[in-house]
Amino acid sequence: MPSPRTSAPSTTTGSDALLYLLFGVLGAAMAFGSLAWLTGNLTNSLAGSGPWAPFRATDALLHPEMLWPALSTTALLTGARVVPALLTLALLTTVLVLWLRRRAGAKTGLARKGDLAPLLDKEITAKAKSLRPSLGDRDDKEVAPADRGILLGTLDPGRAEVRASWEDVIVAIMAPRSGKTSGLAIPAILAAPGPVLLTSNKAANDAFTATVDARAEVGTVWTLDPQQIAHHPREMWWDILADARDLAGAKRLAGHFVAASVDESSGSDFWSTAASNTLGALFLAAASHRRRITDVLAWLASPADRTPVDLLTDAGHDAVAAQLQGTVSGATETRDGIYETARQYASCLLDPDVAAWVTPNEDLPEFKPLAFATSHDTLYLLSKDGGGSASAIIAAAADAVMRAAVIVAERSGGRLDPPALCVLDEAANVCRISDLPDLYSHLGSRGVIPVTILQSYRQGQRCWGEAGMDALWSAATVKIVGSGIDDADFADRLSRQVGDHDVQTVSVSTSEGGKSTSVSMRTEQILPPDAIRALPKGKVLLLATGLRIAMLSIRPWYKEPSAKVVGPASARATKAITERALAKTVGHDDFGLSA
């Protein structure tokens, strides 16, 4: 059965095609004759050989010597033949290119330049000025590209820059080595006008090394590297219990440790819930009396220790104290099971080198999220992924920074200016913030711009569950999908979102009366799933709220003019990491034992 949108075929004979060709030749001849008349007169005037000839395109085309008899043969050939021929060729080429572009845009069904006007220079600049009071008095030309928004890529043809605004929240799904770091994260960090947060599980030859020198010229660089991804010396400390001085903050902190250890599907069983509640109570007890995080480990090792119960009671948290006492006084098997689960969740703190990064140290500067929100500083949060990682600390720090930025924004009129950029690279591996989908609904309106980068849609589902990932995807006002999408269901879903378009089908038949051409219209998917899967490297699909889906070309940092500076800086930073790693092995044999 034919598609309901398929139109009835129309038939065009060969004589019609010849008629169109004739009209085209006549049009080209008229254009050449008109230009020959104009350029011939201009040549005649420059040569001072007579008056301006009246408009006679035919004579200019066929008998130019009749219009300008005083011109020499060379001048006549140049002015009435060569110049108009070149101009006519340029005009026809321009018309052909514009027609082909329009036809190509109509054929692909994807967004063209006019469809993306809200994300292009003129409107995105106006929006930046409305969102950021500091830009309000500047002329549009005085607003630097970096102040207008986050560069997402360029729209071909024309290479128009497409940017997200300073209230957009972004999710990018791109496979490894598809340009997610080089084409999205690094350019955004290098151009950020305000504070920057980056999470990552890599350091050498990655976003850390490519941006650390440039960001050091803008403000202070803070590096939280508890597992020595970059072998960075401990030059700071952060109070992980600072936000755990009320029950909500303590439970949030406990949630980060749980989320880092289990996926969403198993994070709500009895043992996980009970262990989370116990961790929250112990964090609250320690934070209420400015105790160290290592005290929590001691209490976990000795469930019978009444110290945390007494501390909670002294701080006025009677209900929490009673609940913790009930857990401790319960059946031994149940209590031991709960405490053992909690110990597993907090196991990364058993390493004193890891715990030292979140333990007060009078000899080192303290990182304070509230001060960071109003600075031009950079915070690098580095952790390994997998079991035993310090990803809970990374998630807690990122969460603390974003929440502090929201508090500062609310105190300063509702929005940060300049905005804070939070690039959550490898978010599902090293920065599992359980309620990130909920945060997305209001972070952008506060000038806190999260860019969550995932390797696949299913990776997000494993982290936040199917409903949570759907909520994150829906809340993101800008979505980027790159190459390497091997999830058939997700590719099919994207294909249906891109939609269908009309395709013209031409068939030629021969009969006794001659040849006839039949033209019919049918509908087909603009981007079928196999085309999405085969999306080439360097190309991404842009899904922006209220706009047609577009295909962009990303702009990797190493193809920009700044690569002459960034490249050597990245090489130096990578070399420094290698040297620090080698320095740690001096005096040890292959088994890590002293020589």
TrEMBL record:
Keyword Membrane set for record: yes
Transmembrane segments: 17-38, 82-100
Compositional bias per record (Polar residues), positions renumbered to this chain: 504-521
UniProt subcellular location: Cell membrane
Membrane topology classification: Multi-pass membrane protein
GO cellular component: plasma membrane
Protein name according to UniProt: TraD/TraG TraM recognition site domain-containing protein
One Pfam family per UniProt: TraG-D_C
Start and end residues of each TraD/TraG TraM recognition site domain: 419-537
Signal peptide: none
Region (Disordered): 502-521
Domain of life: Bacteria
Keywords (A to Z) from UniProt: Cell membrane, Membrane, Transmembrane, Transmembrane helix
Family matches, as InterPro entries: P-loop_NTPase, T4SS-coupling_protein, TraG-D_C
